[in-house]
Structures are given as structure tokens and as C-alpha cells.
Amino acid sequence: AIIVYRLPWTWKCSKLLMKFIHAGLNTIAMILAIVSMVAVFEFHNASNIPNMYSLHSWIGLTAVIFYSLQLFLGFAVFLLPFAPVPLREALMPIHVYSGLTIFATVIATALMGITEKLIFSLKNPAYSTSPPEATFVNCLGLLLVIFGALILWMASRPHWKRPPEENAKLLRPIGGTPEGTEEESTVTDGSNTDKSDMRINSEAARKNLKLDEAGQRSTM
């Protein structure tokens, strides 16, 4: 969901479609997180295991709570068309930063969780003797770190950012033509009024693009 805007082969797709894909992937992840948490609490209760006593559980629950808030605010501000542009501009840096922070927190929670499970589960042979199970899960943890690092790298590189000119069609006024297109160049000298209207529309489109840039781009 984080890198859906960062893949070059998606840049030719409409921005609205990518917004729905971004929101849909995050919604699926949120549903899976809730199902997982319910399963964990039911397992603990059935096995008479205390709940919420480890750092893994504290950070995990915190990540889920903030993720739900991030998803709700993302829907309300960036997906629905009711939020004013100044609000989008103010919340976009927070939205991006909090999304990346939540993602990094989830990676850390997963690493703590698999380590905790190994320590509690491997008794004979013990975890400290590096049995095959321990080696396998430790390699899984390294892969999680590499995966997280790659996603954060892609999300922070400017050249992976969706080009802003791809948003011109979304912001272009009805009947207007972006500056420098073939339609504008074919207007004859006798239609000065049409030329003037076209320039006004182009200036309005550029102004709208600048004002709504924060609301039209998203990393998370």
C-alpha cells in the first residue's frame, strides 16, 4: 500500500484509481490485523496465558490503534472530496510520516513476536543451541528487516515519486486544455478570444495543481 504510488508502471493509471487501490490494500491489512488480534486474545484466554504483559503486545496494540486512526483520517481527508485543500496540505506531511512510522513499528513488533515465540516454545533443544527452527525463524527476521528497508528506501527517494504532471487531467477545468498541447497550438490567429480563454484555463489549472498538490499525492 505504501509504494502503490511509487511504481513507475502505475503512473499511467489515473490518480483516483491508485487512491482506491491504496485505501483498499490498507483496509484489507486492517481487517487482517483485527482478526489476528482477536485470535491471539482468544488463544491466550483458552490457554490461561496473561494478556498484554510483554513489550511485543504493548507496541503491537499501539500500532494497530494508530493504524486504525491513520486509515480513518486517510479516508476522510484524502479519499473523500469534502476536505478543504488547506487541511490536506497541513495533514499530508503528518499522514506520510505517521504511515512510515507505523510500518516500521509493525516490522519491529513482528521481530519481537517471533523472538518471543522462539524463546517460549523451544525447550528441547533450547533456542540458545541454534536448532533448525531457530535458524529458520532468524532468517525470516532478517528478510523482514530487508523488506522493511527496501520499502522505506523506495518511499523516501524523490525519483520514485509519482510525477506531478500526471495529475493535470484531474485538475484541468472542463473544456480547458493544458498549456502547450496540440489543441492550443492549432487555434488560428483570428480566434483571439478563444486563445485568451484557453490561457485563463491553463493558468487556473496550474494554480489548482499547486494548491491541491498535497491532496493529490500520497505515500501512505
TrEMBL record:
Instruction: List the InterPro entries.
Output: CYB561/CYBRD1-like (IPR043205), Cyt_b561/ferric_Rdtase_TM (IPR006593)
Keyword DNA damage (UniProt): no
* Domain named Cytochrome b561: residues: 1-156
**Record's GO cellular component terms:** apical plasma membrane; lysosomal membrane
Q: Which residues cross the membrane?
A: 20-41, 61-82, 94-114, 134-155
Query: What membrane topology does this protein have?
Result: Multi-pass membrane protein
Q: What is its EC number?
A: 7.2.1.3
What interactions and quaternary structure are annotated?
A: Homodimer.
Know the name of this protein? Answer: Plasma membrane ascorbate-dependent reductase CYBRD1
